[in-house]
Amino acid sequence: MGDMLTGAVTGDATISAVELVDPTGVELVSTYLIDVHDGVVFGSDTMPPTNPPPAWQDRVDAIGAMVPAGVDKSIVVLVKHTTDDDATASGIRVSYKIGSTEYAKLGTTEYLFRSSCF
After folding, report:
1. Non-local CB neighbours of 61 within 8 Å, separated by 6+ positions
2. φ, ψ for residue 74 (rounded to 5)?
3. Whole-prediction pTM value?
4. Phi, psi at 113, each rounded to 5°
5. Around Cβ 4, how many Cβ atoms within 10 Å?
6. Which residue has the higher pLDDT, 55 or 99?
7. Using one digit for the tens of pLDDT, what is the confidence trace for 8-42?
8. Do the Cβ atoms of 94 and 105 come closer than 8 Å?
9. I need a labelling partner for 34 at 20 to 30 A (CA). Which of 26, 47, 71, 78 fits?
């Protein structure tokens, strides 16, 4: 799953943490940062992705990655379904630092993971 991350206007940001907000039945496994491809935020229901954008090959671990001021990136998280029931997360929270000041941004997408699609 993924969400858009826009670099702050005030300076380059270094990502310090990525977490799921209010997860139920799902846990965060890993996080990546990739370039936005044709203005589309990248997300996939398989790992590795079956149809990744060209930027996928240049992905970096999100923690410690730098987002230049004003630049859009895709934050991609790999999650693990930990229950046989449906699972949810209210969003993705990204904590980052500009200079010596810490900030946090909550993504705009809520997630529902179905135990079965049919």
Report:
1. 30, 31, 32, 33
2. -100, 130
3. 0.83
4. -110, 115
5. 16
6. 99
7. 677 899 999 999 999 999 999 999 998 886 666 66
8. yes
9. 26
- Find, among 111, 78, 105, 109, the residue nearest to 16 by Cα: 105
Backbone φ and ψ of 41, nearest 5°: -75, 135
Query: How many whole angstroms separate alpha carbon 48 and alpha carbon 66?
Result: 23
Token code pair at residue 57: 């090959």
Does residue 118 lie in a domain region?
no
**Residue 96 domain-assigned (yes or no):** yes
Residue 118 to residue 116: CA distance in whole angstroms: 6
Residue 103 in any domain: the answer is yes
Domain assignment present for residue 88? The answer is yes
For 58, the domain range is: 2-113
Domain count, the chain: 1
pLDDT digits (tens, 9 = 90+) for 97-110: 999 999 998 887 78
Token readout for 73 is 């990136």
Count CB-CB contacts under 10 A for residue 88: 14
Which among 63, 86, 90 has a CA at the least distance from the CA of 76? Answer: 63
